[in-house]
Design brief:
The complex is a heterotrimer. Chain A is mainly alpha-helical. Chain A has eight helices and no strands. Chain A is globular. Chain B contains 19 helices and two strands. Classes of the chains: A mainly alpha, B mainly alpha, C mainly alpha.
Chain lengths: 219, 492, 315
């Protein structure tokens, strides 16, 4: 009974996390992206707490704490500063339009289901049902990076992809060893800071944060 | 203990550069001298592994899994020597170390901080026993190098570093997903064991892992680390990044970082082969290797910028190394030897290219004429390096490519080898054509002759050429043993 | 027993027909209250129907037989759907007649004829309304099918009555991700198909902003009464689907009078609650520009797709 509840909760949580990822393809304003990322990270924190509770793993509580501090507090605050610095930037004409992006994203999730079939069969953890959703989120993050024009959107896409990988680790193995997890967080933080610095540079040199403008380097 | 001597010098150098404000020249000198300590440590480690010892170091803090966190076997030792050698060369030939520089103090300080951090991260990646630590270190290299590419901020360098940053981060993310999948399989099999993420544990339990999961994991890992190595079709950041970065960074990225990425792929290949048998990974590496060769060959023909041309040459050699890894133990031997040779040759070329660009103030091939007249030593070394890169004797790359072909024919792949030969000759011809354009003719207006060409600037590079010639004439016994031991690790 | 079943079906249709105008009026009244107006009383639509049935029909000279026949077809198809939707009793006596796909086809039949009727008199607004309606229907109809299909997957049958009984037998399935996703998708589609904000404003009098109203601009008298009644009935059907497929408790599984009374009361309560939710949503959101409607519907399509995938692969 406990296992069934655990399974339901983890699948539900993973679905919510994946749906916030879809928001990146649906909405167009950068503020919406920041909010979606923040809520996705909150859901991810809860999921870590749930897995820690049902899986009897105290380490995951610490991981959830770090995740909360990093992805719900620190990163969205920096994203908010970026937003203020570049107000009114909207993803108004992405390379693939909204309706098509949503359909492609749905197909990507189907693809994820197909690819992760061996994983689901191999595992006997109660959380295995959410594995395809985690891989689907990774694909959706990749899709956002490829098809969006604004540098800020690409950054949020990268962060969402990292969330997907963390979700994969949580569902598949109840998280990876604490030290590694901390190192990963540190890397994500540093990566984000670097990207942030670059967005300022891009704006200063190109007078826009449209990645489309970055086309001087030809053959 | 030896690991401290390996890892601490670059960290200390970086710290020094951080603390000294404004930047003074002695920082560069200290940094260069410290790199020699690292080099010594790497050579000692290599000597130990040749003798059969495997240095291990770890902290015993329970529940943190740090026992045996640093471990250097023969493969690690090989790559460590490559990295530290190039690092030493880089730091001695850096701007601001006994030469005129067009960078200001702020840029030099940033350069010294990050390049040492970059070197330290690479060394950590190769000496880590833990797969996760290796991943963290490689991700760190992306971040540190991203700070260095736009040392002079202009449109093209920002564009190059943004593309590099994004592509590398995505690639590394995928590699992490692959790592998680492999760990997932391990946990599904044996439950959560301490040190489950160590190479030694993975290799030991490999026969028990599930083939389907490892198949999927390897694809992610190959794409992820392949992005770092520059395997086509994930190589698109290479021409931009190499074209825009300062010469020393280009040298480090194209030889040392490249070696680290190949190291990661080779290690994971060993684990995958233990689970699936070698045909699966061989097929994947073969396909990607051939793709890299094809794309590189045709890109070199169309190259207009000599720095980007070197990047495409890198992609070509990446293809050759992948091919080698896919051709069994003989091929693996050839691939590793090729890696060593390529490290020496590519780093040499990038330093020279830095000189050339400073003299001619343009990265375009058509603007460079009369290299031999303007910079005789640089020009001569450039010619030699280019001939080495296309695999002419008496340079080492000829030997390693020959070994590669031998491995290919031994495994009954004449068609594949034939195609490879054709592609390599396309590169051969294009390089010779470009080289001719650059070496001879009358120098264009306003080019300063001889300034960057003093012996002091170029002397260390004679060492590189020397190494290439030595490796082209003979295979020193210690190196041969090291290579043989490394092949044992990655391909049985 | 079977006779009682058929009698109940007829009673169900009568109940639906009776409730439909009241439901529409209730939603309208709630919206008015939210907007700080007195609003017409909730039973105003009944008076409208009585008024319209008494009025004379005025038709354009360009209209063909289609114009005269369409209201009857629309009304009949919508009433037939009522026979197949579990409102107060599940399983239904006429279950063998049709299932989920039949429901979708019948709804589409109604929409199709409405669009044709809009085109028939040759007016500009009618054509505009018809083309807009088809844009919406093109994405919304497959979404309905997919959303209910995901429910069918976990119930093991596309028969709507069976879906409800299976859910009653296995309550845990109502909070599974597949069901929740299907609920979200179906809710968005309900707003689209019944012509509510943010897709279409039912209270607008500006022709250029109309979708549904534009198609029926030419109608008058008893034809208009039938079409309006049919559209209110469609609203009732969608609300019933939302209520009984996702929150099935209260529906009668036996024929005894107590259970039936409870079922009728439960239905009225659920419809009122849903009406309240829709009124709140309509008051809060602004109408979407037409080119953004496919984005919204695309999102609901993907939700439905995900619902099917989760139901299919997470069994």
């Amino acid at each position: 009974m406990n296992d069934a509840l655990f399974s339901q909760l983890s699948t539900l949580g993973s679905s919510v996390i994946l749906l916030y990822g879809f928001t990146l393809l649906w909405r167009k304003s950068l503020h919406a992206y920041t909010v979606a990322f923040q809520w996705q990270s909150i859901a991810l924190t809860f999921l870590f707490l749930i897995i820690g509770y049902f899986g009897h793993d105290v380490e995951l509580y610490y991981v959830a704490g770090f995740l909360f501090v990093l992805k719900v507090l620190i990163l969205p605050r920096y994203l908010g500063k970026l937003e203020q610095r570049f107000p009114g930037e909207r993803e108004s004409r992405p390379y693939v339009n909204v309706a098509t992006s949503l359909v492609v994203a749905g197909l990507l999730v189907l693809l994820a289901y197909a690819i992760t079939r061996p994983l689901v069969l191999v595992s006997d953890l109660p959380t295995r049902g959410g594995l395809p959703l985690a891989v689907g989120l990774i694909f959706v993050g990749l899709f956002v990076i490829i098809t969006r024009k604004k540098a800020l959107t690409q950054i949020v896409g990268f962060l969402v992809m990292e969330n997907g990988i963390a979700l994969l680790a949580a569902l598949g193995t109840y998280g990876i060893p604490l030290i590694i997890e901390l190192g990963v967080f540190l890397d994500v933080l540093m990566g984000f800071l670097v990207m942030q610095v670059f967005v300022y540079h891009i704006h200063d040199t190109f007078e826009s944060i449209d990645v489309d403008q970055l086309n001087e380097l030809r053959h | 203990m030896i690991f401290f001597l390996l890892l601490l010098p670059p960290l200390v150098a970086s710290l020094l550069a951080l603390l000294v404000r404004p930047h003074r020249e002695f920082v560069g000198w200290v940094s260069a001298l410290l790199s020699l300590i690292s080099l010594g440590a790497a050579i000692t480690i290599a000597a130990q592994t040749i003798a059969g010892d495997v240095p291990i170091w770890g902290l015993t803090i329970n529940s943190l899994g740090l026992e045996g966190v640093l471990r250097a076997d023969s493969l690690s030792a090989l790559v460590l020597v490559c990295i530290t050698a190039v690092a030493a060369l880089t730091l001695f030939l850096s701007s601001g170390v006994g030469r005129t520089t067009h960078y200001d103090a702020k840029q030099l300080r940033r350069y010294q901080i990050f390049i040492n951090l970059f070197i330290a991260a690479m060394l950590l990646a190769v000496s880590a026993n833990n797969v996760g630590v290796m991943w963290i270190a490689i991700e760190a290299t992306t971040i540190f190098s991203a700070f260095l590419i736009p040392l002079t901020i202009r449109k093209t360098s920002i564009e190059a570093s943004w593309k590099y940053l994004l592509l590398s981060s995505v690639g590394i993310g995928l590699a992490f997903a692959g790592t998680v999948l492999a760990y997932f399989d391990f946990v599904a099999r044996s439950g959560r064991v301490e040190n489950a993420l160590n190479w030694t544990t993975l290799m030991a339990t490999a026969p028990l892992l599930h083939p389907e999961v490892i198949r999927l994991a390897f694809v992610f890992l190959l794409i992820g680390f392949g992005t770092k190595a520059g395997i086509a079709p994930m190589h698109t950041w290479k021409p931009d990044a190499y074209g825009e970065s300062p010469a020393p960074l280009g040298a480090l990225m194209s030889s040392a970082l490249f070696a680290v990425a190949i190291y990661a792929i080779a290690r994971w290949k060993a684990v995958t082969d233990a689970v699936l048998g070698s045909s699966y990974s061989n097929n994947l590496l073969l396909t990607l290797g051939m793709l890299s060769l094809i794309i590189a060959a045709f890109s070199v023909v169309r190259a207009k910028n000599y720095k980007r041309m070197l990047a495409y040459s890198s992609v070509e050699h990446t293809g050759l190394i992948c091919l080698g890894l896919a051709l069994g133990p003989l091929g693996a031997f050839a691939a590793l030897l090729h890696l060593v040779n390529h490290t020496a040759a590519k780093s040499l070329m990038f330093f020279l290219v830095g000189n050339i660009e400073r003299a001619y103030r343009s990265p375009l091939i058509e603007r460079v004429h009369g290299l031999l007249k303007v910079l005789p030593q640089t020009g001569g070394l450039f010619a030699a390096g280019l001939l080495a890169l296309i695999g002419l004797p008496p340079f080492g790359l000829f030997i390693s490519e020959f070994a590669l072909f031998r491995a290919g024919f031994a495994l009954n792949q004449p068609v594949l080898m034939g195609i490879t030969l054709v592609l390599m000759s396309i590169v051969f011809i294009s390089f010779i054509v470009h080289l001719n354009k650059m070496l001879y003719g009358a120098p264009p207006e306003g080019v300063i002759t001889g300034k960057a060409d003093r012996l002091w600037n170029v002397a260390p590079l004679y060492i590189s050429i020397g190494v290439l010639v030595v490796l082209g004439l003979t295979l020193p016994a210690p190196l041969a043993t090291l290579l043989k031991q490394s092949v044992e690790i990655i391909a049985k | 027993m079977i006779v009682t079943g058929y009698v109940l079906e007829i009673a169900q249709v009568a109940l639906a027909l009776l409730l439909a105008p009241g439901l529409a009026g209730f939603v309208r009244w709630l919206k008015a209250r939210f907007q700080n107006r007195r609003g017409a009383p909730p039973w105003q639509p009944y008076f409208e129907l009585r008024k319209l049935f008494g009025k004379e029909v005025v038709m354009s000279n360009n209209a063909s037989w289609l114009f005269r026949v369409a209201p009857y077809i629309i009304f009949a198809s919508t009433v037939t759907v009522t026979l197949l939707v579990p409102m107060i009793v599940a399983p239904l006596a006429l279950d063998g007649m049709g299932d989920l796909l039949m429901v979708v086809y019948l709804l589409l039949l109604g929409t199709f004829f409405l669009a044709l009727a809009g085109l028939d008199p040759g007016t500009a607004f009618g054509g505009m309304g018809a083309s807009r309606e088809m844009t919406v229907a093109a994405i919304a109809e497959p979404t309905i099918a997919l959303a209910i299909f995901s429910l069918a997957l976990s119930a093991g049958s596309t028969n709507l009555g069976r879906i409800v009984t299976q859910e009653l037998a296995n309550p845990a399935v109502t909070v599974s991700p597949g069901h929740l996703l299907a609920l979200a998708a179906l809710f968005i589609v309900t707003l689209a198909e019944t012509g509510r904000l943010p897709v279409d404003n039912p209270a607008t009098h500006l022709e250029l902003t109309m979708i549904h109203e534009a198609m029926i601009l030419e109608y008058s008298g008893r034809y208009l009464a039938l079409i309006e009644w049919a559209s209110w009935l469609k609203l009732t059907i969608f609300f019933t689907l939302l209520a009984n497929l996702f929150v099935p408790w209260g529906i009668a599984t036996t024929f005894d009078p107590a259970a039936l009374t409870l079922a009728v009361l439960a239905l009225i309560v659920k419809l009122a609650v849903l009406g309240g939710i829709v009124a709140v949503v309509e008051t809060r959101v602004a109408k979407l520009r037409l080119f953004r409607v496919p984005e919204l519907l695309g999102a609901s399509f993907v939700l439905a797709l995900l619902a099917v995938t989760s139901s299919f692969l997470l069994k």
